[in-house]
Structure formats: structure tokens, C-alpha cells
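User: My collaborator and I are trying to settle a disagreement about how two of our proteins should look. Neither of us wants to argue from intuition anymore, so we agreed to look at predicted structures for both before our next call. Could you fold the first one, then the second, and keep them clearly separated?

Assistant: That sounds like a sensible way to settle it. I'll keep them separate. The first protein:
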Amino acid sequence: MPGIEDRIADLEKRLKQAKALKQQQVARARAADKKRQRSEETRRKILVGAVILAKVESGEWPKERLRELMDQALTRADDRALFGLLPVPSEAGIRPQNTAPD
């Protein structure tokens, strides 16, 4: 018959395993929730973009207004190129001129 110390050690080991399993389950649930949130956010962005583009194409919203918004919001050269915008000077390797006297 195993001694009380052996039983305690076995129970502590099982408890440790159960806690590790619970941590894994919580981490998986948290990761799944974050993935769902990212997917929903991406879907919202796609739908907003689709609505705006549809309004521009139907003439309900001026194309130039969309271009102005995109020019103000986009900073990456490849994103700007999608809308036919010139790269932002800092992205193009061009330094803004210093207007202050030396």
C-alpha cells in the first residue's frame, strides 16, 4: 500500500497537469477570440470600403473627395500607388527642405 507521501506527490502531479491543461485551454480560447475579432474588423473594413467605392462609382460621392481622403490617410508607398498617389516625401527618400534660416 502506497504511503501518504506517495499519494500526496501523485495528487500534486495530477493537479499540476490539470492546471497546465487549463492554462492551455484558456490560451486557446483567448487566441480564438482574438482571431475572431481580427476577422470581424477586417470584414468591417472591407464592407465600408465596398460601400464607399459603390457610392463613388454611382456618382453619389465625388471621386476627388475619396482621393483626398486617401491622400491624407495613406503613408505607405505601395498603398498610395493603388490609388495613383505619389509617395510621401519621407517614404520616397526625399527630405523636406528646411525653411528655417541657418
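The second protein, kept apart from the first:
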Amino acid sequence: MLTLGWTDGNSFVPVAFNLLSSADSKVRINPARQSIDKRTVGFKRRENALTTSPESALSMLKQAMSAGIKAKYVLFDSWFSFPATIIKICKMNLNVIAMLKDTPKIHYTFNGEKKSLCEIYRTVRKRRRRAKYLASVTVELHDKEGNLVPARIVFVRDRRNRSKWLALISTDMNLPETEIIRIYGKRWDIEVFFKMCKSYLKLAKEFQGRSYDMMVAHATIVFSRYIMLAFENRNNTDFRTIGALFYYCCDELEDIKFFEALQLIIEALKFTLQKKLFLSKETIDEFLSYFVSSLPDYIKAKLLVVSCES
């Protein structure tokens, strides 16, 4: 099951999914042999199930963009980190932050030469052990059609094995290395999503069957449950979603700013009377007390509170 989700760093929402068919010809879906109308959605689903994982991921991205879902970055692990796939995503006006595979067959243009990820790591100078990342280099991605996309590769130390390293790639050249690492960490939200669906929402456990349509319907129901839980969790944790309370807080902040400004004006007036008119401190305090007493009660109360706090 290939899943596409959207996150702002706090809430994760599944957007689309595709149940891919097995590579085994004995159990592989063959929509041509089944009596299904080619005009139906079920037939289109079965056709999409025969595509490869990178093709299916690109299809879901186009589907999400056509639905009006906006995002700044596309995050994924090393399963889809092929230069051709990254270049196609960049053509959709989306930036990519992903984990890279250490595969000798995949090459990147570094200092005018095509090198594998391991060869690049050997040639770059490493930072100290306490640094947040080991090294950072600028490379170019290329595909069979000759398209080139500049990218930044950041090498970080593997926490599970300190003697090994991991590589992250970003097509946004303006991002610093620490920000690339931080944003890629947001991809962990989809792992929490899968854990929640499998352990608590009974994904692939609540129903058992061989019908492809049944499996799609079951996954859709489970994802809908998760969306409702994510919505309620956001309402309970984000104070900005509690109705008009957010606007009341904003109004209160504006009132505080107003009375603070009024207090500054009175202090400036007090300083001016003392310097220009050479009035005594007692005379100025008497004048300001009379001025404050003539103000409306709601302003006078607020002004006295601010004066005491200052």
C-alpha cells in the first residue's frame, strides 16, 4: 500500500493511497480478464495497481495538486530517491527532501565528474564529531533525457550505528543544512500514522477477503477514521481553533499595546514638563493626577494597572 499524506509538522492527514499488485504473475491483477466495465473507477484502480511505485507516487502527487492541496516540499525515504523521479517532481514546481540510497549504479555530477554517493563521501572533508552533520556538497542530478537539477546532499551520522552515515538530498538550494535535517524529520509522521492504523484502527485485520474493491473500501474507511481523530486532536491541542477565543486573545493583546502606548505618552509629557517648563516634581505629579482623574473610568482603571506594573 503506497500512501501520500500532508503534514504541517503538527497534524498528519492521509491524502491518497494505491494498493499495488504483486509482481507474481499467479496472483497479479489482470483487469482485462475480469468482467469489469473499463469506464468504471474500479477498472482504473486496477490499472493503477499494475504501475511501479515511482509511477504511482507521481500519479498521486498530480492527483493531490489537481485537488488544490498545496505543499512546499515532498518528503520520502530511499525507496523513491531516483534522480529521474526527483527531476519529475521538480517539474511540478515542488522541492524534494529525501533519503538517498548508497547504490553504485546511481551517479551524481560532483565537481564536473559523475560519482556514486559513496565516492562523493570519500572525497569530501568531514566536520568534527560534535557537529550536527558530517559534510555538505552541491551536486547535479541528471536523467536520460539530459535534464539537470542542482541539489544539495547532506551527510549525517547514523544514530543506530555511529560508524555509518546517512545522506539527505534537497533541491531547495536556499535551505541551510540544519533546516534540511529538521524538515526531513517531519516524515516520521507517516510512520506514526501507519502504527496507529495497524495497531488501533485494525487496518488489514478488521476484514479478511480477496476482493480488491473490498480492500480499497476498508483502507478508505480506516483512513477516514484517522482523519476524524486527527481533526479532534488538533482542536484539543491548538488554542487557535477554539472558536472566538483566539480573536478575544488578539483583542486583549491590542488593548495592552494601546494602554502601554498611552503610558509612554504620559511619561514623555512628564519629562517634557520637567525639562522645558522647569516645573517641580510635586507640581508635575499633581497635574498628571488631575489629568488621569478626568479620564473615563475604564481607561483610568487600565492606566493605573499598567502604571503599577511598570
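Some points you might bring to the call about the second protein. DSSP finds ten helices and nine strands in the chain. The chain has three domains: 1-69+210-235, 72-199, 245-309.
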